[in-house]
Structures are given as structure tokens and as C-alpha cells.
Design brief:
Order of helices and strands: HHHHHHHH
Structural class: mainly alpha
Distance between the termini: 57 Å
Number of strands: 0
Number of helices: 8
Helix content: over 70%
Shape: flat
């Protein structure tokens, strides 16, 4: 809550300008001769509002990436910029198209174009992250065997995209699990239960090995 108030304080001037311009344009567009100003209101809301949203998100990502390398921080910020700016442009164009043309055939074509655009953006981001993902994967000693398959297929077209996506998902879940365990380890009950759980897993593995033999 304190951090949110701090973010809000930093962007207070920009938010005040956004509200003032939006209200002014809305009042003026109510006049019949100036009705076209409603489109300028859309531009103001999406572009200026989107810029404020991007600054919030980038600040949040940067502050939560202080413990990571500069290369990974740069990749995260680039990923956020690509998605958020694409969302802003898509939202602006689709809203103008809906108001001027209606949700007919042309609107469907435009929405299909942006669906293709987001697909291409996602592919470019996966390719951008590929080397970093598999370098991080090499540093993790214990991992499933199927990740070895993903590593061998990372440079194969199309299959490499799937392999990189699966590896990224596994790494994200792995780090999330470690973070949850780190948080739970602060509690005495978890520290008492955890050794018992590990012993049970070890016994189950040994039993499974005997059955196989």
C-alpha cells in the first residue's frame, strides 16, 4: 500500500493533466460543432494514460529486479514495453473503428490483424529470451529429463519456440516454488513438517526402485 501511494505520488502531475484534458475535451465535445473532439479525447486517454501505465509498470518491474543481472532487467523491460504499447495501439484503433465503422466486417479484419500482431510479438519475445532461458536452465542441477529434450531442440524452427516456452514455464514455476518454500520456512510448523515430507519422498523413491528391480 505504501509503495502504491509512492508510485501515485510520482505520477500525480501526469494524472492531474490527464484528468484535466479528458474532462475539458469531454465538455467541449458536447458542443455540436466540436463533436469531433471526442476522437481527440480517445487519443489523449489511450496515449497519455498508456504512458502513465507504462511508467508505473516499468518502475515496478525495475524495483523488483534489483537482485537480477542488467541483461535480464533489460529483457523484462523490453518485454513489458512491447506488450503494453501494442495493447495501447490496438485498444485505440479498435475503439475508434467501433465508433466510426461499427463492429462489422472491417472491424473484424482489424481485430484479426491485431491478433496476428500479438502472435508475432509473442514469437519475437520468445526468441529474444531463448538464450537467457537455456543459460539459466544449465545452472539448475535437478530438473526433469524432458528439459534435456527441450535443450536439444531449442534451435529447431517452430519446435524451438515450443521448447523455449516449456523451459520458461518450468523455470518460472521452479522459482515460484522456491520462493514459496522460502516464505513458509519462516514458520516453525513448516520447518517441523518439511523433514518428515522429505523422508517420505525418499522412502517412496527407494520403494519404487525396488519394484523396478
Amino acid at each position: 500500500m505504501v509503495r502504491f501511494i509512492w508510485y501515485l505520488g510520482r505520477a500525480s502531475v501526469a494524472i492531474a493533466w490527464l484528468i484535466a484534458i479528458t474532462v475539458s475535451l469531454r465538455v467541449l465535445s458536447g458542443i455540436e460543432a466540436l463533436s469531433q473532439l471526442s476522437y481527440l479525447e480517445l487519443f489523449t486517454w489511450w496515449i497519455l494514460g498508456g504512458s502513465i501505465a507504462i511508467s508505473f509498470i516499468l518502475e515496478f518491474v525495475h524495483r523488483n529486479s534489483l537482485a537480477t543481472s542488467k541483461d535480464i532487467v533489460a529483457l523484462r523491460l523490453s518485454t513489458v514495453r512491447r506488450y503494453v504499447w501494442s495493447f495501447i495501439v490496438a485498444g485505440l484503433v479498435l475503439q475508434i473503428a467501433a465508433q466510426t465503422l461499427g463492429e462489422g466486417t472491417i472491424y473484424y479484419w482489424i481485430s484479426s490483424f491485431f491478433s496476428l500482431w500479438f502472435t508475432l510479438i509473442t514469437v519475437s519475445i520468445i526468441m529474444m529470451w531463448k538464450e537467457t532461458v537455456f543459460q539459466s536452465l544449465e545452472k539448475i542441477p535437478e530438473k526433469p529429463l524432458w528439459l534435456s529434450w527441450a535443450t536439444t531442440k531449442k534451435d529447431v524452427f517452430v519446435i524451438g519456440l515450443i521448447a523455449t516456452s516449456l523451459a520458461t514455464l518450468w523455470i518460472a514455476l521452479h522459482h515460484l516454488k522456491n520462493r514459496i518454500i522460502g516464505l513458509l520456512s519462516q514458520y516453525t510448523v513448516f520447518n517441523q513438517v518439511s523433514p518428515t515430507y522429505l523422508k517420505l519422498r525418499l522412502l517412496n523413491k527407494r520403494a519404487a526402485m525396488r519394484i523396478v528391480i
